[in-house]
Amino acid sequence: MTTSHEDWAEWLETNRAMWDERVPIHAASEYYDQDAFREGKDEIRDFEAAEVGDVTGKRLLHLQCHMGQDTLSWARRGAAKVVGLDFSEPAVEVARGLAAEIGLGPDRAEFVAADVYEAASAVPEADYDIVYTGIGAICWLPDIWRWAESAASLVAPGGFLYLADFHPFSHLMGWESATVIAHDYFDTAPKIADEPGTYVDFNAQTVNNRSFERDHTLGDIVSAVAAAGLRTEFLHEFDMTLFQQNGELECGEDGYFRAPKGRPRVPLMFSLKASRPA
What we know:
Blueprint: H1 5-27, H2 34-38, H3 46-52, E1 59-63, H4 69-76, E2 81-86, H5 89-101, E3 109-113, H6 119-122, E4 128-133, H7 144-152, E5 155-166, E6 191-194, E7 210-213, H8 218-227, E8 231-238, E9 250-251, E10 257-258, E11 269-275
Parallel strand pairs: 1-2, 1-4, 2-3, 4-5
Antiparallel strand pairs: 5-11, 6-7, 8-11, 9-10
């Protein structure tokens, strides 16, 4: 499903106002724990590190980077240069401040405020060894096909796109049961919310509360990446997630949430790697 120019502009500006207001709340939160990050905390999940592999000497672009903690974690893991892009100027300013505080100058870490669809004209280099997008990002995009074109255009020959996110199936669950379908998988109409607070503090007093999201089917995500000219290396599905997305899910010793033992398992997250031939 495509979005008209007028709807697109409203989507972008409404979501930007919502995110801009929440940046200081996020920066001060225990959830993001920026003090621990300054002391060396690594934000990359274990399965991401294993699937992306050694980034030593690589140039990595992080699309929709928010406050840059994942981006800077890749730099700490040895990336030669990381670039983070986000449409929220306040988030980018926080990211730049964190980079300076941990001793990473612009030669190692650079942040750009721009719409992800305009990334090719906003980032400092024409292409990157790794184009990475973090968890919880693509639901904010009105058009997954145009996103794939934008992301793929920035993958260097021999490089790859890596995407990890919540599985589209996980959006079907109601709160009561992880195995009862409560929503329509093929409903790609915009989801419009108007609620105060944020995922780090549901009781936060906020003003810009309206937002737009869209669910994208797994078929559309994979097809969009293929149509953009990249070759799929793998598509992995996981029975665990990062949050209590459903009342039945239980947190394990590894910090991931899963269905209780004995209950049918459903896909809760996925990851995809797609490469451009050398």
